[in-house]
Amino acid sequence: MKTRHIQYGASEAERDYYRSLVKQHGSPLLVVNRSKILQQYNTLKSYLPGVAFYYAIKAFPHPEVLHLLAEAGCHFDVASEGEIDLLKQLQVSGRRTIHTHPIKKDSHIRAALRGGSTTFVVDNIDELKKLIPYRSRTGVLLRVSFRSESATVDLSRKFGCAPGQVLELATEAQSLGVHIRGLSFHVGSQCANSDMHVSAINQCMQLIDECNQNKKNPMNMLDIGGGFPVNYVGDDIDLDTFFKPVGQALSQLSSDINIIAEPGRFLVAPAVTGIASVSGKARRGDYQWYYLDDGIYGSYSGQLFDHVIYPLQIFNTDETRTPSILAGPTCDSIDIIAEDVALPDMADGDLVIGHMMGAYTYATAATRFNSLAGANVIFVD
Amino acid sequence: MKEFQETLYDAISQNFRIDKMYFEQKTGHQHLMIFHNAVLGRVMTLDGVVQTTELDEFIYHEMMAHVPIFAHGNARRVLIIGGGDGGMLREVLRHSEVEHVTMVEIDAAVIDMAKKYLPNHSAGAFDDERAQIVIADGMNYVRETEDRFDVIISDSTDPIGPGEVLFTNDFYAQCKRILNEGGVMAAQNGVPFFQIDEVKNTRLRMSAHFSDQTFYSAAVPTYYGGIMTFAWGTDNAALRGTAIDELRARYQNAGFRTRYYSPEIHIASFALPQYVQDAI
């Protein structure tokens, strides 16, 4: 995954397609394929039947994407007032959301409640106490931390209580009059295998059983988070191998337990293609530099924040290739998309296609550095 | 089929069928709807919570207006905080001895919208010469005004949301400041069966400023969950004990008919269930 994959060449139809998009909408672009998102959603549904999916809005927080998924019956994982507002604009009821940020200010809680989002995630006693004023209205998921060795992005360091603390927190919550609906976990993002998911599901089930033994309000929800992988080049992930054990583990759960998941990356990553073009070039030392109109401060921000190296495609198949550097448009020297890649000679205006650019690209590209506008987001079917 | 599902509680909710949408406004922070329901008539919701319906609004408005006004017996000047739909103004103005009503609504658009889509609520009350409409933040108004009132009615939204300040210590203190001697304030205080903490909070905050503090109640069906409470604050402890004969005489003299309020209901509404008494 850490090596750059470059595809040289494209069919004539492909070239015409990308060029016509740029001609029509300008460059740079992020092209969102609606049917691919729905296809990913349906894939998840077929692998994990009976699970309710809450799209992690943060992955690609675009109203059109939310609208598409809302229409398809998807629910939403929100973590901020801004995300709740996005849903309000689309008239998606707060009842179709859970609020998953474990750390909240009182104003965040109130804003969520005003948005109709009444289920909150909590991972420690101080945060639990913040819900006391709202205890008659809210339900809580306790976030438990199980760390995945295979995750690219570890989400269990920053948030989550230790499994050993669950019973204590649940007991404390009961005495505070706060209703714990169930447990949630995130083993990480882009997990290579599902071992941790399976083990976390099994451990959570035990914890729920343990807690329910002497509680008047039984827990009845398990949130298995996200982390479902997509195939960036070289990852070689087989979805059958990944999901079957998860489905099996879930099928062991009592039918009283509502299972939910929070896919983000899985739904959007393969559905978005970036199109950038060469703005200019220079020969510096041993390298040929190409300056593109999109970069690390834009759609390629995921290379920095999300640790993904997107597979690229250029149209030129010329086998005379020089060591080159693909740089972004800002003045910052960190703004380099690809170091030391072998590229044929490219001219101003030539297109560079970035694949698998749906997750944490547009989302983190919101900087206004150098007052550069971000890539234009367009939708295709 | 379109449905409105209330978002007040995590574990339970009520659903209304939307038969026709009359008005919908969704700004970044606020979602306001007025729609028709075959049983309830026109329904107004704000941020997923029922505000008022044509079918049962009379219970709420009659009880909020007539209980303090008849208890007082000589209310000339009345202040309404909130109440943009005009229903409270309508009921207050039915008292001919009331010479002046100031209604303070934070959002002029709510009044315009209610006149247009909920005309039965105000039923012309906005045109009454005794009514003065002030567009201002209720908290700022009570803090700054030099006017004085015999009765103050706080017709607010839920404490989570724009009505938050109308449940604060400071608000009650300012209300007390602008009440004439012997005056009384009544304030919407939610459904105690599901929101007992709100009763406790109001008790604590309001009783710091009024020597007599209690609640009275009425069941408004679309404020789901049984009875709702109205907070009562005054320094005239005799008001809540106004005798039935006195109330009957005042009601008779007032010369209008009500659909929920009666002198008997008035007396009975101060009897609180044990679970509410225990909480306060």
What pattern of helices and strands is seen along the backbone of chain A? EHEHEHEHEHEHEEHEEHEHEHEEHEEEEE
CATH architecture of the largest domain in chain A: Alpha-Beta Barrel
Let me know the number of strands of chain B.
Answer: 13
Q: Cα-atom Rg of chain A, whole angstroms?
A: 23 Å
Radius of gyration over C-alpha positions of chain B, nearest whole angstrom: 18 Å
**Proportion of residues in helical segments of chain A:** 25-40%
Number of helices of chain B: 10
| Widest β-sheet, arrangement of strands of chain B | 9-8-7-10-11-13-12
Shape of chain B: globular
Condensed summary:
The complex is a heterodimer of chains A (381) and B (280). Chain A is α/β, with parallel strands linked by helices and 381 residues long.
Structure commentary:
The complex is a heterodimer of chains A (381) and B (280). Helices cover 29% and strands 25% of the residues of chain A. Chain A has 381 residues and is an alpha/beta fold. Chain A folds into two domains: 6-31 and 269-380, Beta Barrel (Lyase, Ornithine Decarboxylase, Chain A, domain 1), CATH 2.40.37; 61-263, Alanine racemase (TIM Barrel), CATH 3.20.20. In chain A, strands 1, 2, 13, 14, 15, 16, 17, 18 and 19 form a nine-stranded mixed β-sheet that branches. An eight-stranded parallel β-sheet of chain A has the order 5-4-3-12-11-9-7-6. A two-stranded antiparallel ribbon of chain A has the order 8-10. In chain A, strand 13 and strand 14 form a beta hairpin. In chain A, helix 8 runs parallel beside helix 9 (239-251). Chain A is elongated, with a radius of gyration of 23 Å. Chain B has helices spanning 57-72, 87-93, 108-117, 119-122, 138-144, 169-178, 196-206, 244-254, 263-268, 274-279; strands at residues 3-5, 15-17, 20-26, 31-37, 41-46, 49-53, 77-82, 100-105, 131-135, 149-155, 179-188, 212-219, 227-234. In chain B, helix 6 links the parallel strand 10 (149-155) and strand 11. Chain B starts with a strand and ends with a helix. The mean pLDDT of chain B is 95. Chain B is α/β, with parallel strands linked by helices. A seven-stranded mixed β-sheet of chain B has the order 9-8-7-10-11-13-12, sandwiched between helices. A four-stranded antiparallel β-sheet of chain B has the order 3-4-5-6, with no helix packed on it. Chain B has a two-stranded antiparallel sheet with strand order 1-2. At the A-B interface, helix 4 and helix 5 of A face loops of B.
